[in-house]
Amino acid sequence: MTWIILLILLALFFDYLNGFHDAANSVATVVSTRVLSPKMAVAWAAFFNFVAFLVFHTGVAKTIGSGIVDISIVDANLVFGALCGACAWNILTWWWGLPSSSSHALIGGLIGAGLVKAGTEGLVASGIIKTVLFIFVSPLLGFILSLIIGIIVFNLFRKTNPFKVDHIFRIGQLFSAAAYSLGHGGNDAQKTMGIISMLLLGGLAGQEAAPIRDFLLSHEELHLVAQGEFIVPLSVVLMCHSAIALGTLSGGWRIVKTMGQKITRLRPVDGFCAESGSAISLFIASSLGVPVSTTHTITGAIVGVGSLRRLSSVRWGVANRIVWAWFVTIPAAAAIAAAAYWLKVTIFG
Q1: 240 CB-contact burial (10 Å; exposed 0-12 / middle 13-18 / buried 19+)
Q2: Mind listing the pLDDT tens digit for each residue in 70-84?
Q3: By three-state DSSP, how is residue 69 classified?
Q4: What does residue 310 show for φ and ψ, rounded to 5 degrees?
Q5: What's the rounded Cα separation, in Å, for the pair 67 and 75?
Q6: What is the pLDDT of residues 286-320, one digit of tens each?
């Protein structure tokens, strides 16, 4: 039972790292446009990260919990390997200042540990294909939506005094940043919910976790589990939203600089368009139960807004470096997770 508790704490640490790592996504535009100070920005983002559970259902958590690896093969060692891969890759990319995807690091971790444990038969192809597809779809969607919003906004305000436009969108950015943070919390916190629910309800892991499951779940939730349903307990929902909000409060300033300054120079109106396009993308993905990368989405949106002014305003070399980090994330996290799983099983049993 102690081992299960430690794994839940490790999962919550990953969730904290997710908020810490992705704080840049939530606040980079609003900080770089000087609408809010860094401290105020992360507090604003953390609040909406937390309250997101009131808005979104748990479709993304169910995809992570039962749609990447076969739930019947899940045990504590597999979850340990997956979390090691995801946490290690998050820390490395934070140190390098690369806005990689915490979501795809976790998915890569699950794939790596699942492959070592059960081979390809232990993986759920449909869930993996859907997730990999959205590596391309989410930044493209963010790009297109921010571009459309930018065209509409720039046309509506083209004859307005620039100082007035700046004032209007400084206020507007408060709402667009809130919407983006809501979408971030609604999609990203669910990934950890899926991992913890998998640990509590999964085949082999569920037997080990029975005492903790009985403590954390309500009578109604235990009844649904007994009927064979995969659920996400309310206690797990609250723990995960709290962890990601605390991580956001801690900030990730190395990545803020990359996102908010190195890709393109942002004004308040640009920040509003980028955040709005990203928020809509995240709302769509969460409603479909797809675990997307908030990093990919906001990066695509920032590039979209920057290219609307002129293509040369986007620093394509920086954007190219970020894109390479996206493609490396799943295999890199999978390799670390596979090694962690193998070492755990081989040395400690």
Answers
A1: buried
A2: 988 888 899 999 999
A3: strand
A4: -170, 145
A5: 15
A6: 988 888 888 778 878 888 887 776 554 455 455 56
**Token pair recorded at residue 128:** 């993996």
For residue 257, what are its two tokens?
């600089």
Q: What percent of the chain has pLDDT over 70?
A: 85
- The token pair that represents 13 in the structure block: 């640490």
Secondary structure (DSSP) of 12-27: HHHHHHHHHHHHHHHH
In this structure, what token pair is assigned to residue 289? Answer: 């139960």
Tokens 């950890």 found at = 192
Phi, psi at 35, each rounded to 5°: -75, -40
**Angstrom distance (rounded) from CA 139 to CA 323:** 10
The pLDDT tens digits for 108-146 are 999 999 999 999 999 999 889 988 888 788 888 998 999
DSSP code per residue over 240-257: HHHHHHHHHHH--HHHHH
